[in-house]
Amino acid sequence: MAHAPNGEIEETPAELVQRLGLPFKNLLILSRALTHRSYINEHPEALEDNERLEFLGDAVLDFLSGAWLYNHFPEMAEGALTRMRSSLVRTEQLAEFARLLSLGGALRLGRGEIAAGGRDRGVLLCAAFEALVGALYLEAGIPATIEFVHPFFEKVSRRILLGAETHDPKSRLQEWSQAQRYGIPRYATVQAEGPEHERKFEVEVLIEGEVYGRGSGHSKSTAERAAALAALETIKQRDL
């Protein structure tokens, strides 16, 4: 174990591979998956952060969760499948998966981000989990990635199915909009302020160019969900 600048213990990629039994031979790609841009700012020798791998992992998780749900719930309608998938891959859920792996201790963060509690920040943990999935897909292919992510889906699917998490406001708003033949709602960030570790976003949701709702949060996805809830309330009031 190596010690982080503020004294916290930081797990190396090699130690993470050994602890979790991950099929990585190329530790450089795993290291990149664990590297936040705040670390790059303080360590010019580090060539790349995890944002591109996060993008890839997000796409892989969307596909694998959709395929898993399709096969496991053959009688479920498309709308419910969409809501289930949104719940499986939402920021808070992926951050919880990262916590189950104790991934926070392996993140490569800048000193300021560590001091601000970045090792347990949901947005960072979600991004790291997505980047890890992206790196695993590149390193070992789809079968190994399936083997890695399916247990997480199994673990939470029953709770999601029985709980209110299936009623994702963005999915509900999209279902309503498409049913009205308005197309897919568009989310626009109208403001982003505050330091990086306490950034606050304000988002508007537009349907056919009209603003239906506005929401805020410490991540774009949280702000979008708040905007969708506001839009659903607007629609409810118009229908009264």
Assign the CATH topology of the largest domain: Ribonuclease iii, N-terminal Endonuclease Domain, Chain A
Radius of gyration: 19 Å
CATH class of the largest domain: Mainly Alpha
Q: Could you name the ranges where pLDDT drops below 50 across 5 or more consecutive residues?
A: 1-7
Please state how the strands of the largest beta sheet are arranged side by side: 3-4-5
Q: What's the name of the CATH homologous superfamily of the largest domain? A: Ribonuclease III domain
Instruction: Kindly report how far apart the N and C termini lie.
Output: 61 Å
Q: How many domains, as an integer?
A: 2
Secondary-structure-derived class: mainly alpha
Task: Give a nutshell description of this structure.
The chain is mainly alpha-helical and about 240 residues long. The chain has helices at about 15-20, 25-35, 35-40, 50-70, 80-90, 90-100, 110-115, 120-160, 170-180, 220-240, and strands at about 1-5, 10, 185-195, 200-205, 210-215.
What do these coordinates show?
This protein is mainly alpha-helical. It has two domains: 2-166, Ribonuclease iii, N-terminal Endonuclease Domain, Chain A (Orthogonal Bundle), CATH 1.10.1520.10; 169-239, Double Stranded RNA Binding Domain. It has helices at 13-20, 27-33, 37-42, 51-72, 78-89, 91-100, 111-115, 122-162, 169-179, 220-239; strands spanning 2-3, 9-10, 186-193, 200-207, 210-217. The strands form two sheets. The protein has a three-stranded antiparallel beta sheet with strand order 3-4-5, covered by helices on one side. Strands 1-2 form a two-stranded antiparallel sheet. Helix 6 packs across helix 8 (122-162). The chain is globular, with a radius of gyration of 19 Å.
